[in-house]
């Protein structure tokens, strides 16, 4: 098991809201928890993954996410069970959409 941490620059909502959980911890998938954080211009991401040695790929996927979404002021925790970058990106999109819908 590898634990990775990233601070992704991103603008976004800084309001305090309830956490959102999407996805599942099953083979080839991941679970994502979105919570409010303190830094309004940064999205803090923690990744727990069973696939060791893919830090650069995680950085690329999370950087793309930070550029596409207003995720500043959020803390995201990802529990990965071998999800591909496409699945992680899809789950991140789903998580931010649920965050925005639940808190509109």
Automatic annotation (TrEMBL):
Entry coiled-coil feature ranges: none
Keywords, sorted A to Z: Cytoplasm, Phosphoprotein
Entry annotated with the keyword Metal-binding: no
GO cellular component, one term: cytoplasm
Modified residue annotations for O-(phosphoribosyl dephospho-coenzyme A)serine: 27
Methyltransferase among keywords: no
Signal peptide bounds: none
Cellular localisation: Cytoplasm
PTM (free text): Covalently binds the prosthetic group of malonate decarboxylase.
Pfam families, A to Z: ACP
NCBIfam families, sorted: malonate_delta
Protein's recorded name: Malonate decarboxylase acyl carrier protein
Organism (species): Pseudazoarcus pumilus
Gene: mdcC
């Amino acid at each position: 098991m590898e634990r990775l941490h990233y601070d992704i620059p991103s603008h976004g909502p800084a309001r305090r809201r309830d956490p959102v959980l999407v996805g599942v911890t099953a083979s080839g998938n991941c679970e994502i928890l979105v919570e409010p954080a303190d830094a309004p211009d940064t999205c803090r991401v923690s990744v727990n993954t069973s696939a060791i040695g893919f830090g650069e790929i995680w950085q690329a996927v999370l950087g793309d996410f930070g550029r596409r979404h207003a995720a500043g002021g959020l803390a995201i925790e990802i529990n990965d069970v071998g999800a591909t970058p496409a699945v992680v990106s899809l789950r991140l999109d789903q998580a931010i959409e649920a965050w925005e819908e639940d808190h509109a």
